[in-house]
Amino acid sequence: MDGTGDGREEEAEILNPQPCSSSNRASMDGIGDGREEEAETPNSQSCSSSNRASMDGTGDEKSKSAVTHGLNEFLSKNLCFNISVTRIAAVMFSSHQTRVTAALRTAGLESSNLIVGIDFTKSNEWTGKTSFNNRSLHAIGDTPNPYEKAISIIGKTLSPFDEDNLIPCFGFGDATTHDQEVFSFHNDHTPCHGFEEVLSCYKKIVPNLRLAGPTSYAPVVEAAIDIVEKSGGQYHVLVLIADGQVTRSVNTSEKELSPQEEQTIKSIVNASSYPLSIVLVGVGDGPWEDMKNFDDKIPAREFDNFQFVNFTAIMSKNVSPSEKETAFALAALMEIPIQYQAARELGILGRATGRAKKIVPRPPPVPYSRPQMPTPQPSSLPSTEADERNQAVCPICLTNAKDLAFGCGHLTCQDCGARLSNCPICRQPIRNRLRVFTG
């Protein structure tokens, strides 16, 4: 990492570098005088385990680092940039956000447009138990929550590539959208002006929300496709920030897909016909096993347009904040130059298909207040039908009937309960699940 001095030569030597020409040296942004010699050392060495762990957020010595993997893909796809791989490596290993930006620019990405999608499903209330001091991941306070942190870091790195600094922002998974729609951050569906406004709108919206579910990324992916279509085929990056995997029922076999998985996969495949990259940023405790392998479930696409980044794992590393931010930015953005080049080669840049579904987002949620109830009078009458109906509804999605019981005695619906490790009511570990049949 930048600032260690002795390790920079090893980091820059991953891929048997060849010396850069003087013209290439002059074209690089953000490289100090003297790094040319460091980046051009002729010996080839592998990335150390400490560097690997800090860059990909996994610490798995059997896997290549995100940076090495990305650069090897550069070579395997025979992408021709007027810059040596060594110079890109030197930039990408730097701990400064400006160097990350420079690496993307030298790899061919001159401009893009950003879209942000935020997950407002009910599970955000308990998936911060370990990673966010048992607080809701959407808790607004003096300390930025994981969503605010992820938005800020992505904003620092990708803002220079946003041509007009206009960022369409959508929420999904709340009580108004569930797994069917999205809402816009503005009533008139206009985009936010820069990431400062993204954060400002986010903080205003959160207190008005009722978190719900189930989780599906299909609505926000379709909304992003519609934006790309309306732009005439300009390149866009959809940054999805979410706390959970796509909803999967307990009685869905390993070889089957849930309805939410089917719709999400269908949307991602559809998106590969458009110049759109999708980056899923995972916040909170997870679990994330399915999302790590989600790419493998997606059938043939025009190009590999989807990637998952574990924000929590990277941010939990025992390194400086600036190194964490750089590692996250690299992991999130590493594939974008490759995907951008693939879109160019496929000829899908700068053209509209005429096939995109037209999406009309809902307005942002209005402040929710429970209706004032009259002072209850003593009565021997049974509960009303409405009360009974409320008691029978899943407390997570507020939609499905309770049909799954845990060992502690509390109930949810199957779809929501399938992905829980702790009871959302009493927080006890879930060791047993029992189907409940009514009627």
UniProtKB/TrEMBL annotation:
A GO CC term attached to the entry: nucleus
This protein's UniProt keywords: Metal-binding, Zinc, Zinc-finger
One record GO biological process: protein ubiquitination
Coiled-coil region list: none
Residues of the RING-type domain: 394-427
Low complexity bias (residue ranges): 44-54
Superkingdom per UniProt: Eukaryota
Extent of the signal sequence: none
Composition-biased stretches (Pro residues): 361-379
Record flagged with keyword Zinc: yes
GO MF entries: ubiquitin-protein transferase activity; zinc ion binding
Pfam families for this protein: Copine, zf-C3HC4_3
PANTHER family (alphabetical): COPINE FAMILY PROTEIN 1, E3 UBIQUITIN-PROTEIN LIGASE RGLG4
Name of the molecule in the record: RING-type domain-containing protein
